[in-house]
TrEMBL record:
Domain HhH-GPD: from-to ranges: 111-270
SMART domains: ENDO3c
InterPro entries: Alkylbase_DNA_Glycosylase/TA, DNA_glycosylase, HhH-GPD_domain
Upper taxonomic lineage: Eukaryota, Viridiplantae, Streptophyta, Embryophyta, Tracheophyta
Protein name (record): HhH-GPD domain-containing protein
Keyword Endoplasmic reticulum: no
Keyword DNA repair appears in the UniProt entry: yes
Keywords: DNA damage, DNA repair
Amino acid sequence: MNNPPPQTTVISTRSTVKKLRESPSTFSKIPFRSRKIQKLASHAAVDDPTESPQPSVIKIPKSLSTKPEIDTALNHLRLSDPLLAALISTHPPPKLSTCNSPFLSLSKSIIFQQLATKAAKAIYTRFVSLCGNESDVVPATVLSLTPQELRGIGVSARKASYLHDLSDKFSTGFLSDSCINTMEDETMFQMLTSVKGIGPWSVHMFMIFSLHRPDVLPVGDLGVRKGVQCLYGLKELPKPLLMEQICEKWRPFRSVGSWYMWRLVEAKSKANAKAQTAEGGGF
């Protein structure tokens, strides 16, 4: 995919958004780029929009698995986007969660779909118990469970078919934990969305939170869209094309930029709730 390289100069956000709306580029349904050696902005000052920072060459990690890799991502985001830099300074850095096997993570993702967290956790706990324990949640075990057994622990008939389709694709070798851990983002996106019940949003969440892939932009996630709208002062929620264009400057660490959009929305929500409580207390 031939995408423009990361920006190495800082320009006005208002003018950027205006130009993006006037001259949209072709939208890619798969917002990823292969990890290669890329030129990124150096430590030049970002408060002078006329100054062009000198490029430096770094290797993009396959996964944000260590603190130094996250620090590299944060440094790039600070230099490439002053508005995001201010947000980063007000929140702690992302914390890495423990990586489960891809099959277990995808199975859990299917179970959690469109359910309240408490209900989803209860069903997932019963699902793991039915398999034995988490280490026993493997394709052969899940395929051995009948739809009736899965229905008995609260898994819908549709989700039972999704779990069986996922297990079948792992059993036949179409997918595997090892290939998922090593394949490029674009290929993974195409292969995982071929599984029943796994759509673009589920793949994006899996790549960010399970695999810790650094350059994923979930253009369909409401929280990330609201964060971009708030950060850049947009009148409306940005659509996928505008999201792609505005967040291009975050490459190759758009996953981390997205993480801060969730934090921004959470902070704004808490501030609004606090203001409403204070206002109500005056009556």
